Every structure is written in structure tokens, then in C-alpha cells.
Amino acid sequence: MNGIKMVKKINYKQTESGEIPEGWEVQQLKDIAVVNELKIDRSFQHDRIEYIDIASVEKGTILESQKLSLSDAPSRARRMVRNNDILISTVRPNLQHYAFVHEAKSNTIVSTGFAVVTAKKIDPYFLYCYLTTKSYTSYLSAIADTHTSTYPAFNPDILENSTIVFPSLEEQRAISEILSDLDAKIELNHQMNKTLESIAQAIFKRWFVDFEFLDESGKPYKSSGGKMVDSELGEIPRGWQVSNLGENGTFKNGINYLRDETGDTDFFIVNVRDIANNKLLLKGSLDKIKINLSKAKEYLLQEKDILIARSASPGEISLVLGDLEKVIYSGFSIQYRLNNPNNYLYVFHIMQGLKRNLQNYSIGTTLQSVNQETLKNMKFILPSDEILNEFNKISEQILDKTFNNLLQNRELSQIRDSLLPRLMSGRIRVKTG
User: Fold this and answer.
1) Can you give the pLDDT at residue 3?
2) What Rg value do the Cα atoms of the chain yield, rounded?
3) How confident is the model at residue 239 (pLDDT cuts 50, 70, 90)?
4) Which residues are registered as beta bridge partners of 58?
5) Which top CATH class is 25-166?
6) CA angle, 182 as apex, 267 and 25 as ends, to 5°?
7) pTM over 0.70
8) Are strands 429-431 and 379-382 parallel, antiparallel or unpaired?
């Protein structure tokens, strides 16, 4: 890694925080950084903001920001951030809603649900890595669990009064370089997958919304005079049909189990939060439970199954890719298994708009849940087998590239997770000279 050598021969000294490497220091965070330094006040000069809420941040990645007028922004949109600031959610810290801000705009605002940490006398990325170790996250979670409100949370002064153990600035920067290189590669793969997703969606729209797939002469179908016929969903190409989800597959609710339930077999389980946060999932990212095989075997996933969230995030969908051995899904989700699995990528794209379409079926102003009967009646356009086969070929190539990036990120994350606690504690030292 950039010619930096790691050495294992370490001399320790005793401190109030226990044994630490010689040459390292122990200070409270408030002596080397500031928490929540800036907020919107009368001097704020922007009418529009780029707002980041807790749900938009996931384990080091800022998934998206919302462009809002200041007058329409939620009341919690108050905290200002700058380059190299650290965001840590004060609510449910175990969910790891944290991130490092590489490029902030002058109108970037985050939720008051974040503690915004600004490094002053320490390398910013080193501090970010320290504050996001599993041990530090567990420390925050333990404190949050004692909170008297309805959900686990901690006050920002918990951060300020916590102790930070750190080496010389030179060594901090060397450690930061190692970890930031890994994080940059993970982020690059993440961005590549977003680009691949955009390409897939553009192709889908071109073929199945605009009906400009290539005809037998290699020309765009509709604009080249391709025959269109009326249907209950509007004009569609001749030879295509209107169908519904119930005619093309079967639905099955997930397994119900008690939190303290035990059994004879280990399983990986897809929960609603997994579906809500990821359109594509790998087994290794899932929680494990121990439950009886006789109970769980009816809920084992197969390749090309589509999962739908029933509640909490109703209508969100996801696929689990790769190894599916002993992977099951929770009772708050529904499995959709196609009669013709070869069409799963087309149907998966169709179902991307499921949440929006299901809103029309909700009784109140907000969709609260999804059931099988509603799903079975959802109508969609079913193209000819020839067009579906061509689309599948293209989509599978895109999915393969996406899958490989996910696998690489999984491996890089494992390397990072292995190195991080050793580097932060000094068990592995970075030789800088």
C-alpha cells in the first residue's frame, strides 16, 4: 500500500485508557475537535439547500441529497457542514449511519439527527476512522440503549467527552492514506454500479416505455412506424399483452419468528431494512438467526426470486445475488417467484415502480402495508418473447458487472474491517520513515 510498511514490534505504556503504544496520546474529543460548530442562522445566504437526512447515509456512503427551498425544508434541516466534517447519527448508532464529507457545498445542510464533528488538532480522516470502529460504535450503542426516549439515542456531549487515542500526525496521515485508498475503491465501485443501474433503466425506458426497441430492420420500432394497438394500459406494440403479477408467478409471505427463538440450524435472513436499503443484496451482508430447519425450509430463497417489503417500507423490492444456501426472508416481506424465471430482470424493472403504483391502492394518504391480493392484481405490459430474450441478454451483462463490483466491495470491506481496529489501536504500526 503505497510503499508503507507495517511493523508488529510495539512497545506499550500504561495510561488511564489502558495500554497504548509509546508515542501515542490520549485526549478527550472536545480538545481535538468540535461538535456541531455551525448551524443555519440569520447570516445564511442561500434560499435553496442540499439536504442530507439520516436515511440518506449508510455506513460511509452519502447515498443522495435533496435539493429543497429553505422555506420548504424540514425543521431538522439545521446543521451546516464543510469539507472533512464527520457525520454520525445520534439515533440508533448501531445502524451505522455515518459518513465523511469529502466535498460540501456552501448550502449543504444535514439533519439535527447527526452530530457533525470537525477535526481541529487531529487528521480528519483518522478521526473518522476511529469514530466508526466497531468498538466505538458499540460504545455509542450501549449508551443510546439507556436513553429514556422511545428510541435509542445519545447526546452530542457523549462524543465530546469520549477519549481518543492517537499517534503522531505523521502516522495518523499514513494510516488515513491506507484506509482512504480502500474506501475510495469501494466508493468507485459503488458509483460504477449506480452508473450501470442508470444505463439499465435508460434501456428499459427506451424499449418498454417509449417502445423504441430495434425492429427487424434494426430501426427504432415506434418512430419507424411500428404497429401499435390499443390496450387498457394505453397503446402497446402489436403482439404484446397486458398481464398482471398474479398470472405470472406466485407470492409467499416470509417466516415469522420470535426475537429470542432458537433452533437447530443457522440461516441468513433478509429483513425489511435490507430490502429498503438495497435493490441488490449479497448473503454476507445479511443477519444470521438460528431456527429449526423444519420450520425454515419452506422459506428458502431460490435464484431469481424477487422480494417485496410488506410494511415499514411497503413496496420496496430487492434481489439476493450469488450464493443462496440457507437464505430465508422475514415475515415482513413477500417472495415473488416467477413461472418463467428467465423474465425476472424485466419483471424486476417493472416492479421498480411498484411502490409508486401501490400508492393508488392505499386507503389513507400514506401507504402503510402491502398484501398479496393487491400485488396479484398489479397490471403490466408483457412484451413478446423475442424482445424479452434480447432485453435479458443485455440486462444480464449489466447485472454480472454489478455483481462483480458488489463482490469486490465485499472483499475490500472485509480487508478494511480487519485492518481498522488493528491500526486504530496500534496493534499494527505504520512505518512512515
Assistant:
1) 47
2) 25
3) very high
4) 61
5) alpha beta
6) 100
7) yes
8) unpaired
